[in-house]
Amino acid sequence: MTSVNAQATSSPSLKDLTIENITENVNLVNSSNPSPRFKFLLERLVTHLHDYARETHLSQDEWHEAISFLTATGQKCTEVRQEFVLLSDILGLSLLVDSIDHPKPTGSTEGTILGPFHTHDAEHLDHGATMSHDEKGEPLLVVCSVKDMQGNPISGVKIDVWETDSTGMYDFQHAGRDRPDGRCILTSNDDGKFWFRGIIPVPYPIPHDGPVGRLLSILKRHPMRPSHMHFMFDKPGWDKLTTALYLRGDPYETSDAVFGVKESLVVDLGLVDEAMVRLFPGCFVGMKLLTYDFVLVTEQETKRLRDVNNQRLTD
Questions:
Q1: Is 272 helix (H, G, I), strand (E, B) or coil?
Q2: pLDDT tens, position by position, 242-262
Q3: Burial of 39 by CB count in 10 Å (0-12 exposed, 13-18 middle, 19+ buried)?
Q4: Are the C-beta atoms of 105 and 241 separated by less than 8 Å?
Q5: Which residues contact 288 (CB under 8 A, 6 or more apart)?
Q6: Average of pLDDT values for 266-271?
Q7: Residue 115: what pLDDT?
Q8: How many CB atoms lie within 10 A of CB 173?
Q9: What is the predicted pLDDT for the residue at 11?
Q10: For residues 199 and 167, what is the distance between their CA atoms, to the nearest angstrom?
Q11: 3-state secondary structure 218-243
Q12: What's the pLDDT score for residue 311?
C-alpha cells in the first residue's frame, strides 16, 4: 500500500482533463515504464486510439457496441479456437504484422498468415508417410526442397504441415477427435528435401458462427478461403517462415477472406509418372503432384532488412 501511495503522490495532476489535453496526460502518467519498447508501443496505441475517437466523434453508444463486440470475441475463444486471431486475420492485421516482422529479400519464399488452425500436437513422420487418412480426399504427393539464397540445401529444418480434410474442416473441428490428422512434422534431409502424402486441398469457410462471422456479414464479405496447404519452417539461425501454397484457379484465389494469397505462392499441380513411382513408393501413376522449392533467409539478413524498413517507417 505504501508503494502505491508513493506512486500516486509523484504522478502528475490529472484533474480537469479535456479533449485537447487528455492524450498527452495519459501518455505522461504511463511514461515511467522501465521498458523503452513497451513505453513506445503503449504511447502510440493511446495516441492512435484517442485520435480515432476525436476524428470520428465516437459516440457512447458506438463505444459500448465496440466493447460488446470485443467482449463477445473473447468469450468465443477456446483452447482450439482463437477468435481474436480470426479477427486480426479478416482485418488484414495478421498479414501486415508478418510482413513487417519477417521481411523477405527478392528470391526468398514469401510468408503469409499462420491462421487459427495450427496446433502443437502434430506427429513426426518419416519421409513418404501419409499425413491425411481421409478416404474421401483425392491423394496428393508433395515433394519439396528447402534451400538458402545461394541454392544450397538446408538440412535439419523442422517442417510443420497442416491442411483440411475433403470437407474443408481441420481435424480439431470434428467432435470426438482423438488424434491429429491432416497435419505432421517432418525434417529436411541432407539434400534439403522432404516429401509426404496428403490430399488435394479444398476451399473452406473460416469459422463464421461467432462475432467475426457477424462482422463479415455486416460488411457483405464472404468467409471463404481458397484451397491451400500450410507450411512452417524452423531451424536455429534461420528466420522462421510461416507460409502456405495455394492452388491456381481456385474460385477464391483473388478474394481470400484473410488476404493470405500471394502470386509467388500460387502453384499448379502436376502428375506422378512411372519414374516418380520408383522414387516414391506408395504412389501411383497419375496421382496428383505438388512440388515447390522453399528458400529461407538467415536471421541476420532478416534483422538487417527489418532495421532498414523500421527506419524507413519512422523517418
A1: coil
A2: 999 999 999 999 999 999 999
A3: middle
A4: no
A5: 138, 139, 140, 141, 200, 269, 270, 271, 272
A6: 98
A7: 86
A8: 16
A9: 67
A10: 11
A11: HCCCCCEECCEEEEEEECCCECCEEE
A12: 77
Orientation angle between helical segments 211-218 and 60-75, nearest 10 degrees? 130
Q: How many CB atoms lie within 10 A of CB 172?
A: 18
Q: Round to whole Å and give the CA distance between 193 and 172.
A: 29
pLDDT tens digits, residue range 50-93? 999 999 999 999 999 999 999 999 999 988 788 999 999 999 99
Max distance between CA atoms of the chain, in angstroms, equals 81
Distance (Å) of CA 217 to CA 220, 221, 257, 287: 5, 6, 12, 39
Lookup: cell for 146 = 528447402
User: Does the pLDDT of residue 2 top 50, yes or no?
Assistant: no
Residues 194 and 186 sit within 8 Å (Cβ to Cβ): yes
pTM of this prediction?
A: 0.89
124 φ, ψ (degrees, to nearest 5): -75, 125
Identity of the amino acid at 97: V
Distance, in Å, from the CA atom of 270 to the CA atom of 88, rounded to the nearest integer, reads 34
